[in-house]
Automatic annotation (TrEMBL):
Residues 188-296 form the Acyl-CoA oxidase/dehydrogenase middle domain. InterPro entries: ACOX_C_alpha1 (IPR055060), Acyl-CoA_Oxase/DH_mid-dom (IPR006091), Acyl-CoA_Oxase/DH_mid-dom_sf (IPR046373), Acyl-CoA_oxidase (IPR012258), Acyl-CoA_oxidase_C (IPR002655), AcylCo_DH-like_C (IPR036250), AcylCoA_DH/oxidase_NM_dom_sf (IPR009100). The keyword Oxidoreductase applies. This is Acyl-coenzyme A oxidase. PANTHER family: ACYL-COENZYME A OXIDASE-LIKE PROTEIN (PTHR10909:SF352), ELECTRON TRANSPORT OXIDOREDUCTASE (PTHR10909). Its cofactor is FAD. Residues 335-486 form the Acyl-CoA oxidase C-alpha1 domain. SUPFAM superfamilies: Acyl-CoA dehydrogenase C-terminal domain-like (SSF47203), Acyl-CoA dehydrogenase NM domain-like (SSF56645). Keywords: FAD, Flavoprotein, Oxidoreductase. The keyword Flavoprotein applies.
Amino acid sequence: MAQESSINTASRRTRILNNHLVQYPSKPTSCLQSNSCLSYTPPESTESFGFDIKEMRKIVDFHNLEDRDWLFGVIKQGRVFNGKERGGRLFVSPDYNQTMEQQREMTMKRIEYLLERGAFDGWLTKKGVEAELKKLSLLEVIQIFDHSLSVKIGVHFFLWGGAIQFMGTKRHHDKWLRDTETYAMKGCFSMTELGHGSNVRGIETVTTYDSKTGEFVINTPCESAQKYWIGGAANHATHTIVFSQLKINGVNEGVHAFIAQIRDVNGNILPNICIADCGHKTGLNGVDNGRIWFDNLRIPRENLLNLVADVSPDGQYLSAIKDPDQRFAAFLAPLTSGRVTIATSAIYSSKIGLAIAIRYALSRRAFSMTPNGPEVLLLDYPSHQRRLLPLLAKSYAMSFGGNYLKMLYVNRTPESAKTLHVVSSAFKAIFTWHNMRTLQECREACGGQGLKTENRVGHMKGEFDVQSTFEGDNNVLMQQVSKALLSEYVAAKKKNKPFKGLGLEHMNGPVPVIQPNLTSTTLRSSQFQMNAHCLRERDLLNRFAAEISLYQSNGESKERAFILSYQLAEDLGRAFSDRAILQTFLDTESNVSAGPLKNVLGLLRSMYALICLEEDAAFLRYGYLSTDNAAAVRKEVTKLCRELRPHALALVSSLGIPDAFLSPIAFNWIDANSWSSAQQ
Ligand SMILES: Cc1cc2nc3c(=O)[nH]c(=O)nc-3n(C[C@H](O)[C@H](O)[C@H](O)COP(=O)(O)OP(=O)(O)OC[C@H]3O[C@@H](n4cnc5c(N)ncnc54)[C@H](O)[C@@H]3O)c2cc1C
């Protein structure tokens, strides 16, 4: 309780706020009435926008705008979404001041609310491109509100539900999909173990088959085999997908997936199963991550997800794919959805950060440039522009990359499986790294205000950090990208055939030449920009292949040669991603007719292309750019910052994030911090 002071207690009022007794005087002190105080001026009038922000939003959000707006409205209206008025505006945001247990329960309450309003209708029972796009758009909206909520929903629908849909067959679909969609049961996904995360093939859980009873028997043979980090396992999940080695007649047939019930309808843990909590995390505490041990758990034979392999009632292992490597790849192929949703979610998160930081920078002033002159808006400092506007251009570029990835995913065919695997791995890594970097820059750009949880930016760093680790560690994913590019290279050279696929067709043409003295006009031409990106990718792929080959000719195994060439592999993975993203930007731009919108897209595209050139040391290291040209690139980026500055508000207003999902410092932060506001 607050200490009694000498101030007349009668002049104080008291109230309970967050369980603390708060005391404050009944009227403001004189300084609050002084004329010398700053007054808030809104950034700019919406009439000054140089392009149509509604049209831009259509390009950026790309699909299901009405569905998105419907769900934003549903969330704004729901009491469980913790709406609060600040500075005369409504903001919705989870209460991160709650305990871990309370946050987990609120996550479930929010799911129930959304379920009652039909938000998940058709998520697993409707098929086709439209249904899939709608589902992706609604998950993006949910994530804009809270990452825990979207992860909890994502685990249930995309991991548990997705495994049944894509690794199972009709018997599993008939039995589980409808109940999953209605939450009659709650699913989780047990792949990771204490001892093995990225290396899924190394997991130690063992499943055998008992032909006398027609059951599989699942065991956790040692502590390192305990399932770890399983989202939903600690409190709520009733069922799980268990990834395990399958041993049939003493032969290990490799990793397979099984359905197991872990709790009864009342939430009691079933016999032969032990569950413990992973505990408090640096973020994402609305998700109940748990650990699971299996002790001779028996499940029916039919619970093997048998799209790729099966076991007959008398215990024979059956699979059309004989090669264990190919079988393992076929098992995991359907799980791409996680990478797709994480990639696009990361970009929405960076957009929230940028919308808040840029709006704040358009109303916050600091220092003056002349003695006794007015203080200067943060975004009028060239340094502040340089910190935020290239990140904004990258977020736009990655939005277009994300849209391409989603279309690739919803229209997937066996022929596009490789491209989908490579692009989703590359974009998941690049977008999530970009998001963390953006949030940190935005946090700092907001100064101390960036550290207030209600202002979102700082807090989101902890909430989204995990994206670089789960659903494929970013570094491991980037290795896979380079490996895939290398195998394309080796195949093309071996067969002496042109490159086809993964956007590598540029390797068939002549080597692009970068002229010695780059002018502003050249730097802004899409042809130069694409040439520079292709040159880097092409050269790095050649170098990578040559280095691997050299290691191998010196007696190293293929695997070790790859590990030793990790630096080129990393550079190549980034070069592939940047070039692929630039291509999606150009494709997007080509669908826009000439006018102010296309002009500003051109500025953003040039900024994206040039900042990639400036940030990757490979351009200087391998001499794709001379030092003079590198200096010209840097100068052009500064010019682009100046040219984008007048569009900054319009650009962040086109990102498809309603005001209620931003934060008080994005608007009238003086009113939001007024004395009267503190008393509400
Ligand atoms: C909040 C949270 C929720 C999760 N939810 C789930 C879930 O619901 N279900 C589930 O099954 N799992 C879940 N996971 C687990 C997640 O998928 C794993 O953490 C992830 O796969 C990484 O595994 P790991 O933690 O064992 O790290 P490791 O694989 O041990 O990696 C540690 C480090 O080593 C590096 N490294 C690994 N291999 C190589 C290599 N070959 N070369 C160079 N460097 C390498 C990595 O880059 C990384 O930096 C979750 C994790 C978290 C944190």
